[in-house]
Automatic annotation (TrEMBL):
Record's subcellular location: Membrane
Gene Ontology CC annotation, any one: high-affinity iron permease complex
Signal peptide (from-to): none
Protein name per Swiss-Prot or TrEMBL: Iron transporter
InterPro entries: FTR1/Fip1/EfeU
UniProt membrane topology term: Multi-pass membrane protein
First-listed, main subcellular location of the protein, grouped into a coarse class: membrane
Length: 295
């Protein structure tokens, strides 16, 4: 009896731990993007001796965070109030939206990592010239976009990872690390190759997004909106069961499903085969714009 109970405890720990990793990656990636945006705005205002404008930046950031939390709560409560088929349809749709968001985000940040500082400083100058409302709006839009994307993608990833507390724990851990890294960079205590960082995390997120895509399609199949629920591409329940430590790890990180339908397998494969090479292809060399051309 003790051995059986210990195995069950170990299984729960593996599922919990694996769910932490995927969500921690989301929190780290999205949190660092938002934190870097805020640090650029704060550093520029301090450097140009305009500290009085900082309160408006923090107000915009606070509103953006509140909106993001509210959006996440609304999505969760909306899903919980639906019947089974409607819940599956809602979850599947949100998963597809999340994949679109995260795909656009990884491609955008790959190209914007080097020029984002200059663009933000230019926009902050314009906003400060207009007035406090414009500064609040700039900070809100800069952080709010990241927050809304994070809320949608985290919901989809958490749904696919299961109903344990691992996703939230992992997300908070990743977010805390992101804030610490951004603070260290701001204080000059740490130097990070942001281009390489966003490339590596982007590759990992491509696989996470592929898993979310497959899970979302399975939800739509459960809701009878897409056919083929009983047409399996493979069944690895024997060699790679989801309740094993390695199955739980694959499920938590890449949304692995032991019983994968043909639709899921095709979607996962096509997404990875198309998205990954496009993301990793060398960036085109561009002539640096003159000062008058920078917006």
């Amino acid at each position: 009896m003790f051995t059986r109970r210990q195995r069950e405890v170990d299984r729960v720990e593996h599922v919990f731990g694996s769910a932490v990793f995927g969500s921690a990656l989301i929190g780290l990636r999205e949190g660092l993007e938002a934190a870097l945006v805020v640090s650029v705005l704060v550093a520029y205002l301090v450097k140009t001796d305009r500290r009085r404008e900082l309160r408006w930046v923090w107000l915009g950031v606070g509103i953006a965070v509140a909106l993001s939390v509210g959006a996440g709560a609304l999505i969760t409560f909306t899903s919980a109030s639906l019947d089974f088929r409607a819940q599956e349809a809602f979850g599947g749709t949100m998963s597809l939206i999340a994949v679109v968001f995260v795909t656009g985000m990884v491609f955008w940040m790959r190209g914007a990592a080097r020029r984002i500082g200059g663009e933000l400083r230019g926009r902050l100058d314009e906003a400060a010239g207009i007035g406090p409302v414009a500064v609040v709006a700039l900070a809100f839009l800069a952080v709010g976009r990241e927050g809304l994307e994070t809320a949608v993608f985290f919901y989809a990833a958490a749904q696919s990872a299961g109903q344990n507390g691992g996703p939230l724990t992992g997300f908070l851990i990743g977010l805390a690390i992101a804030v610490a890294l951004a603070w260290a960079i701001y204080r000059g205590a740490l130097s990070i190759d942001l281009s390489r960082f966003f490339t590596v995390t982007g590759v990992l997120l491509v696989f996470v997004a592929a898993g979310v895509l497959a899970y979302g399609l399975h939800d739509l199949q459960e809701a009878a909106l897409i056919p083929g629920l009983d047409v399996l591409a493979f069944d690895l329940s024997g060699p790679v069961p989801e309740d094993s430590w390695y199955g739980a790890l694959l499920k938590g990180v890449f949304n692995y499903s032991a019983r994968t339908t043909v639709v899921q397998a095709i979607a996962w494969s096509v997404y990875v085969v198309v998205t990954l090479p496009l993301f990793l292809r060398p960036a085109r060399t561009r002539v640096a714009p003159t000062q008058g051309e920078v917006k």
